[in-house]
From TrEMBL:
InterPro entries: MoaC (IPR023045), MoaC_bact/euk (IPR047594), MoaC_sf (IPR036522), MoCo_biosynth_MoaA/MoaC (IPR050105), Mopterin_CF_biosynth-C_dom (IPR002820)
GO biological process: Mo-molybdopterin cofactor biosynthetic process
Catalytic activity: (8S)-3',8-cyclo-7,8-dihydroguanosine 5'-triphosphate = cyclic pyranopterin phosphate + diphosphate
Keywords from the UniProt entry: Lyase, Molybdenum cofactor biosynthesis
Enzyme class, broadest EC rank: lyase
Organism placement in taxonomy: Bacteria, Bacillati, Bacillota, Clostridia, Eubacteriales
Annotated protein name in UniProt: Cyclic pyranopterin monophosphate synthase
Gene designation: moaC
Organism of derivation: Eubacterium callanderi
Sites where the protein binds substrate: 78-80, 116-117
EC number of the protein: 4.6.1.17
Amino acid sequence: MAISDEFTHFNEEGRGRMVDVTHKKDTARMALARGAIYMKPQTLEKILSNQMKKGDVLSVAQIGGIMGCKRTSELIPMCHNILITGSDLRFEPDVENCCIHIEAELRTTGKTGIEIEALTAVSVAALTIYDMCKAVDREMVIGDIRLIKKTGGHSGTFERKEEKK
């Protein structure tokens, strides 16, 4: 069996390649990803009261996440450059757990999924929050980044069972 038959991201010589999706049909696709950034209570309070010296943290993180998802194919090897037809990021402050939950919902119509772009949007939004707040809290922790749901394509719908709302 040739390497390319066994692993989709390798050619006959065992070198990396981008999977050919020419034969696939365009379908409507959606991906929902979530993550969180944990911080000191004082940091969260400063964010919520718009007291960070760098400005409105969540507004900047919103734009950062959108910009990040648009650059995914430049960051992840072998990732297709896809047309993103819609993106939205939501932030839910959680005072009890000293964190901000981040959710990204992206849409496209195309031959390949948009899951990596949604995960990238969450990651970049969290990194943006970290960057804007690091002067007051270098102990922040970014985590829990995961795919919640995806629709469309040959494999159909995936929904993380423990995350249904």
